[in-house]
Amino acid sequence: MKISVNAIRYTLALVATLPLAASAQLAPDTLRAIDAIVTKALQDNAAPSASIAIVKDGKLAYAQAYGLASIDPARKATPQMRYKIGSNTKQFVAAAMLLLVEDGKLSLDDKIARFLPDLTRANDITVRQVLAHTAGYQDYYPLDYLAPFMAKPTTVDAILANWGKQPLSFEPGSKWEYSNTGYAIAGRIVEKVSGKSLDAFIRSRITDRLDMRSVVDTSATAWSADDPQGYEAAALGPLRPAGAEGQYWVWAAGNLAMTASDLARWDIALMHDTILKAKSRKTMATENLLSSGTGTNYGLGLFVRTTPEGRLRWDHGGEVTGFRSQNTLFPNDDTAIVVLTNGGGSTSDQVTGEIEALLFAPAADPAAPVALNKTRTLFVQLQAGTPDRSMMSEGLNAYFSAQVIEDFATSLKPLGEVQSIVELRANSRGGLTARLFRVKTAGRTIRVSTYFTPDGKLDQFIVYPR
């Protein structure tokens, strides 16, 4: 007897399995909202299941699985199931290299010729550059589908011989370009220096120490019938079982699989310097610069970014055939979001973004609607060159001289009608309330920085390009 796919896919797989003491960190309304976010996202049919884990205040606060690990035969997903995490593996490879730095066995500034002298321009490229995607080695796996040749087994040596000895795509350090080849090189360096297989080193120095018992190296361990089935869709067609990369194709670039909870345990350890020393963690999560001084938004195995609201975010996505992952950390907030799926598309990104918005939603601010309305009103008035000075403090009145008003009107009127205004953040400073707004007009999107006095008057109104 077959179970209805639709009946199961859009319902929760099971109740959370974490102790109540852990789950209590998230309010019941928040848990219900998270469940609704994931359940709704699965209705897009890009993935049949999702497994998530939430870290709050440095603790595992919630773990849940939704939908189907297998469509036919129908099998529910559970939080205990491991999913392939793809390129989120790179965090572990970078951490392994940093542990060897701590051991005094190598330096990030060592030339790779010390370890792999036969590779292209090995005397000009550093360990740091292969981890930071600035070395110039051509990516051996840029495609988002499984090419026929990649369904067959390979070896690490073959990957290095075929892609590590080609001419560089650019001068080392001059450009950022994502390269799985760089991580194959990094993985082999870890093995040469440690005297262990990459899997054994990561297991002994990282995952076993964190009690991450679900972790497997998919290059060495067969994917079993108890694990989730990966799925892909052609265009907008139905989900169909996906194949898998041949042995060693993803290796150091994306070979690990684990539960969402175990990946969350790694996030906690990374934010709290449990495995890496603080200096190493800082190195891993510091943006690398190109030789021109341009930023890359990438550390070592992690993207390093700041949200529009000013929140520090470390993140990485992962993709292998039939699976997607998104791992996002907010170190200053001691929070992390893990989303793993057994399908393609943007489900993991969508769920992460919506949970992020939920967890960091601003507290209720009764003055916010009034402030937004005043900001809109004054903006429109300044476009016309006729501001209502009764809305302003004495200081802002002085700021808006005839020349300043003329400059505001001349530059803002051509932007056209205001289409939307959104408050991005608010905070207190010097007895005032600072509010930053994003203003979308017919012509462009800009930002307005305001300060409000306790009696509600505008004490600052400065317009910035987006």
TrEMBL record:
Signal peptide: 1-24
UniProt keyword Signal, yes or no: yes
GO molecular function, one term: hydrolase activity
InterPro entries in the cross-refs: AmpC-like, Beta-lactam-related, Beta-lactam/transpept-like
Keyword field: Hydrolase, Signal
SUPFAM superfamilies linked to this entry: beta-lactamase/transpeptidase-like
Transmembrane segments: none
Domain Beta-lactamase-related as annotated: residue spans: 34-352
Pfam families: Beta-lactamase
Stated name of the protein: Serine hydrolase
Protein's organism: Duganella alba
Taxon lineage: Bacteria, Pseudomonadati, Pseudomonadota, Betaproteobacteria, Burkholderiales
